Each structure stands twice: as structure tokens, then as C-alpha cells.
Amino acid sequence: MSFLSVDRVTRRFGPTLSLGEKIAARLGADVETRAVQAVNDVTLAVEKGRTLGLVGESGCGKSTLGRVIAGILAPSEGAVLLDGQPVMQGTNKVTTRVQTVFQDPFASLDPRMKVGEAVAEGPIAHGLTARAQAAEYVAGWFARVGLDPAWAERYPHQFSGGQRQRIAIARALAMQPDLLICDEPVASLDVSIQAQIINLFLDLRRDLGLTCVFISHDLSVVRHICDRMAVMYLGRIVEEGETGAVFDSPAHPYTRALLASVPELVLDGEELVRFAPIQGEVPSPYDPPAGCHYNPRCPFAQDRCRAEAPALRLLPNGRHAACHFAEELPAG
Amino acid sequence: MMLLRRFWAEFRENRIALAALVVVVLVSLLAVFAPLITPQNPYDMTGLSLMDARRPPGFVGSGGYTHLLGTDPQGRDLLSAILYGLRISIQIGLAAGLVALTIGATLGILAAYAGGRIEMLIMRVVDLQLSFPAILLALVLVALLGQGKAQLIGALVAAQYAYFARTAYGAATSERRKDYIEAARATPLAPSRVILRHLLPNCTPPLIVVATVQIANSISLEATLSFLGLGLPVTEPSLGMLISNGFPYMMSGRYWISVYPGVALIVLIVAINIVGDQIRDQFNPRLRK
User: Fold this and answer.
1) Is residue B8 part of a domain?
2) How many angstroms separate the first and last alpha carbons of chain A?
């Protein structure tokens, strides 16, 4: 069994209707009563020490899947197992071995708590350090993420975005996790800071032997740091495989379109920027198309695609893809 | 500490608010030290003489001292009675405000954190209560519970906790959605710790604002109840009752019995409200220059 296994996880978000809204809906008023399937029957596995990249457009469910793996959201169906142990029981997280680094370091730190205390409170609560040694313990992690340990007495508003993200990383790592979920950890940072944080992340991953799930919409970052990657579209995984192989020969039409949509500078030609936006709009998640969710936008769609949802299956080249015609697609 | 200093520096810039704060502090000190300042203990019935009743300001009574603000229908020195009245008003207003703050904030934050049925139950009761006037509930409760300080505070708390619950609920629901709460829950930390160390401190600014305004409201509610004869016993007149006592004499030229306690009440309430407004403006980033 894999170190992390995501077993047929589905997560729905139903509208929470008040009594009045329920009555209005009964009387035929226009009240949204449908649920959204943010994550739809996803099965994944990550080996120990490996990093899985989770990519897709906004709203594809990658953050929701990350939160389910992290034990923040309970799955509606299915289970997440870490080393064979469930991450959640009911709606309660029952392990400290999974920790999360959030996207926005301006929101993920309590503005009224000194950063040293924010790093120390989890380890103290779970007995990873004694209260008397907490300051030393925190100083160790501050040094590890490249912060001056003397800054532990400051408040979050006294730090820059990059420094805050270092604090957030220290807070997650101080819990001594085996699995780190990074939910777009560099998306809200300046480009010049992004590289620093990515490098810090790579160093820490190597030194601590971390297993990671790295959620991003930045394909170049994923290519740089992930061993494997999974591509999501409207709640389903459409392709999964070795990062390099997926980039070199995408097996799913959506992956192809996603990779082609990355802007590219062509320096020696006339064109300075070239990219091919994906045709059409993402369908409403309330009412996803029948069959393959990608069929309205897919240039290769056939009748079968409009009727039957393709399962994620193993292709001869070791790739997993959810496409009926993955082997028959024209090259390129 | 640094935040507090910055807050004070900004507060000081508003001269009117600063003056109001001085008034509040001054009146509070006068009220606290009333027994040391006043020439007479107005609650000691044996020290009162009906010969001195309803005398105008400046009258020298049987006690041998000048009644600066005149005397009331029982022969009390009005200045003494006002200071003692302020003492009671501030005591009751503060006690009722703080107890209502504690209960209301607890309920509001609990409702926001727990969600679901608990939220539904708490907030519907609060909404129901906010839909009719606080004074009505206070009147009914005082009538049911009887006279006395504790009963009066109880009635005021019951009438006012809903405002705190609403405010705390509003602040907590918006804070609750933020990442730092999610991060704390995902560590995982115990719910009690998430609520007390993370949610509560971030909900305090609006609660402080409402608390200032509600303390002023408790004082005026108490005065209203006393004016209607439902507050404290007649032997210990609070400001409302002093006003009520002088009311029949207003038209016969003995204005001072009602007017001076009324002025004292208004000055206190207006001053607290100005201070409260300034605190609210300082906490509201959209009003920042």
C-alpha cells in the first residue's frame, strides 16, 4: 500500500438552506438546492518521499482535494489513508502527521498572536516540545526557514509576504509532519520572492525527507519540483503520471490544451508571445456535461464521449488517463 | 502595548472625544468618592429634615451648609443626591454592561463557531428579542423580579445581551472563514483553544465599541425604569427617581429638582457616547484618513 492513498474520495458542497429558503424552494421559487461535486470519485497514491503536483484551472477542485487530504474537510464519500491510518474520523482530524501551508500568508497567520507563539502552540499542545523548551524549539525552526530567531516576539503585520510564508512553513514543519500539503504556497508572492520560497521548500524537503502534495496552477513550478503530477478537470482526475512524461507527451486532450495555453516567449522569431487559450468556457459545476466532462471543449469528442464517462485507466506507457481515445489521439 | 500607545495617540487628536473622556473620568471619580465629597448622606433618612424640602439653590439649611443645587421634596441636598445617584447609575450600568458582554459574546461566538442547529437556536432567540424594544422586556422583568440592585442588573442584562450576541456573531462569522482559523483547526488544536486564543481576540474591537455604547444605554434604561417607579427603593433614589420626584414641581417654578439630575444624566450619557463613537471610528479602517 502506498504511503498516502486517496481512496475514491468525493466531496460535495450542498447549499445550507434556511427554513425560509426551504419553504420558498417548495413553493417553486428560484432557490439553488443542488449540490456541487467539487471532487468526484478521486483515487490517488503518493509514495513516501515523493512530491505530487496537483494542477488544473480555477474551480477544478484541486484546493478542495488538498483540504480533504489535509484533514480540513471531511470527504463526503471515500477515505484518505496515511500509512494505512485514516486522516479523519467523522469531521475530526485525528493525526498531526499531515500539515498544510496555505496560499495567502497574510490570511493564514493570526494577526493578534506573536509569530513565535503561533509556531509553538501546536507542538506544545501535542507534546512535541515542553513549554519550558518552546522558545528554543521555535528558534530552531526559525533558523531552519531562514528567519532571525529574535523575531519570534513580533506580530505578523511586521513581516513581508515572503517572511510570513517562511513563518507559515515553520509553523507547519514544527509539527514534524510526514506529509506536507502546499496549497499554492507561492501564488500570492512577488515573482522575485517565489524562487526563494521554492528553493527553501526544496531544501527542506530533501533534509527532512518530506512527502508532499503541491497544489498549483503554475505549470512551470510544478515541472520544476514535482515527481508526479495529476491534472484535474471539474472535480475529476483526467491524467496522472511522471511529471516529465506528462509534459513531453500529454495523453489527455485537456492536458494538451492546458500545456499549450502556457504563454511562451519566442525570442528569435517575430512573435514575442505565443499561446493557445483553451476553447470555450468551463461548464457550470452545478450542471456538468454528461459523459466526459471535457467533451464540449474537446476537439476529438465523439458520440461515446457524450454518453459514457471515461474511467482513469492505465495506458501502456505507464500513464493514467481518463480518455476513451487516449491511444488513438493524433500526435502533437 | 505598542498598538495601545498608537491607539491613544490617535484618540488624543480628537479634542471633543478627549474632553468627553475627561468628563467621563471626572464624573466617575466624583461618583466613586461621593461619600468623601458630599456634605450629606442622602440615604440616611434620619439626617433629612422636611423643613429643608424643595429649597432653591444657594439655600442655607438646618445643617448649616449651603445647598448649592437646592433640595428635593424630602429635604435632601440635591448635589449629594446627584453624586450618590451617579454612583448607583454607573455601578449598575457597568455591571449590567459587563455581564451582558460576557453572556452575549459567549453565545454569539459559540453560535458562529458551532454552526448548524446550535447557531439556529441561539440566533433565532436573539433575533426574536431584538425585534421588540429592550425597555419592554426590562419593564416586564423588573415588574416580575421586584426591586433591588441585583434584580435591576438581571433585567438590564436580559434586555441587552442580544446586542452583544449579534455583534459577536457577526464578527466571529467573518473571522471564522479566514485561513488562520482553518490553519489552527488543521493543526489540529482543541476547539476551546481555537475559540479562546484565536477567534475571541480577533472579535474584540467591535465588542469594545458596542460595550461602551451599551453601558450608556444601561444607564439611561435604568434611569427610565427608575423614573417609571420600577427601579431601586425610594429610600435610595437614583438619577431617574430624582427626576421623577421633581416632576410634579416643574410647573410651579421649582425646576432644579428635576433639571439638575437630568443635566447630570445627559452629560454622562453624551460623554460616554462621544467616547464610544471615537473608539468605533478608530476601529473602522474605512473611516481612516
Assistant:
1) no
2) 35
The closest CB to that of A93, out of B179, B180, B188, belongs to: B188
Mean residue pLDDT of chain A comes to 90
The string of pLDDT tens digits covering residues B172-182 is: 999 998 999 99
Nearest chain A residue to B182, by CA? A72
Helix (H) or strand (E) holding B97: helix B78-114
The cell numbers describing A194, all together, are 517565489
Query: Residue A319: which of A251, A232, A233, A236 has the closest Cα?
Result: A251
ipTM: 0.85
Dihedral (Cα; B31, B33, B34, B35), 10-degree rounding = 150
Output phi, psi for A91, to 5 deg.
Answer: -105, 10
- Cβ distance B262 to B243 under 8 Å? yes
Q: Mean pLDDT for chain B?
A: 87
Q: If you search the block for the grid coordinates 426551504, which residue do you land on?
A: A22
Across B62-189, the runs of DSSP E, i.e. the strands, are 66-67
* Cβ-defined contact of A110 to B182 (cutoff 8 Å): no
Q: Lowest-confidence range among A263-267, A328-332, B5-9?
A: A263-267
Number of separate domains in chain B: 1
Confidence bin at A328 (pLDDT 50/70/90) = confident
Work out whether strand A273-274 and strand A264-265 pair parallel, antiparallel, or are unpaired: antiparallel
Residue B219 lies in a domain: yes
Please give the Cα distance from B161 to B141 (Å, whole number): 14
Domain that holds residue B252: 16-43+66-287
Q: Which of A93, A121, A126 sits opposite B186 (nearest CB)?
A: A93
State the average pLDDT over residues A80-90. Answer: 91
Within-domain flag for B57 = no
Q: Domain limits of chain A?
A: 1-14+43-226, 250-332
Contacts of A107 in chain B (CB under 8 A): 178-180
10 Å Cβ neighbour count for A54?
30
Question: How many other C-beta atoms lie within 10 A of the C-beta of residue A202?
Answer: 13
Lookup: cell for A65: 482535494
- d(Cα B281, Cα B275) in Å, to the nearest integer? 10
Q: Is A92 on the interface with B (CB under 8 A)?
A: yes
Using the Cβ of A102 and the Cβ atoms of chain B, whether some distance falls under 8 Å is answered with: yes
3-state helix, strand, coil in chain A (%, to 5): 35, 20, 45
**Spatial distance between the Cα atoms of B140 and B64, rounded to a whole number of angstroms:** 44
Greatest mean pLDDT among A39-43, B51-55, B257-261: A39-43
The CATH-assigned architecture of domain A1-14+43-226 is 3-Layer(aba) Sandwich (3.40)
Smallest CA–CA distance from B116 into chain A, residue? A16
How many residues are present in chain B?
A: 289
User: CB of A195 within 8 Å of any CB in chain B?
Assistant: no
Cell of A59: 474551480
- Tell me the pLDDT tens digit for each residue of B106-116: 999 999 999 88
Using DSSP bridges, classify how beta strands A98-101 and A179-183 pair: parallel, antiparallel or unpaired.
Answer: parallel
Put simply, the answer to whether B180 touches A108 (Cβ < 8 Å) is yes
Write the residue in B182, B190, B193 that is nearest to A72 by C-beta: B182
